[in-house]
Amino acid sequence: MTGQIGETDPRITLGVLAQLVEPLARALRAEVVVHDLTHLPDSVYAIAGGLTGRGVGAPATDLLLRHMSEGASGNLLDYPTELPHNRRGRSSTIIVRSPDGTPVAALCLNIDVTDLVEAHRLLGTLLGGAEPIASPRETFPRSVGELTERMIAEAVADTGVPVDLMKKQHKIQVVARLREQGVFAVKDAIETVAEAIGVTRFTIYNYLNELEGEESA
């Protein structure tokens, strides 16, 4: 069940959550982050703990953007993440909503579990039969540009076709995924995507119009 704050002004919600960041970071020995979900993608509103090297004004993660684009129906708890310097993490994202159900903030907890993962691996080697550790599925970009480039690279990779061999349907597939993830709300994203898949920005506009036309039909 997602959190809910009784006040209607998102700034009050964010102010309350921001007061929790530093004490929670110390108590849990974790990085604690508050995201302003009304200010995506550069949504980091308050942060303490220093695991990811980010600061106020840094962008949301690719996972959080995808979750928002899919309606943010619930919390994301205890999932694997990739920290800087090849370290491993476990994270949780709690969506905080206004009384009308609108997501206004996200409270995120990031914990470095690199040493625990290594201990698990060694014990598994000794004892046998240990379950594998899940691969990371969230990273922490420090700028909107880095976030955009990472999401484009993932969308291209998912087609299974190199850019220089892509046909129109593959490129539309890339654009459709990035559109669903909200990438085109980022400044200059049209130009960045166009360069990445070898088309003009006008072609990207045409692809977006085709996708909107298909949805309308």
Automatic annotation (TrEMBL):
<dbReference type="InterPro" id="IPR013559">
    <property type="entry name" value="YheO"/>
</dbReference>
<dbReference type="Pfam" id="PF13309">
    <property type="entry name" value="HTH_22"/>
</dbReference>
<protein>
    <submittedName>
        <fullName>Putative transcriptional regulator YheO</fullName>
    </submittedName>
</protein>
<dbReference type="InterPro" id="IPR039446">
    <property type="entry name" value="DauR-like"/>
</dbReference>
<feature type="domain" description="YheO-like">
    <location>
        <begin position="19"/>
        <end position="121"/>
    </location>
</feature>
<feature type="domain" description="Transcriptional regulator DauR-like HTH">
    <location>
        <begin position="148"/>
        <end position="209"/>
    </location>
</feature>
<dbReference type="Pfam" id="PF08348">
    <property type="entry name" value="PAS_6"/>
</dbReference>
<dbReference type="InterPro" id="IPR039445">
    <property type="entry name" value="DauR-like_HTH"/>
</dbReference>
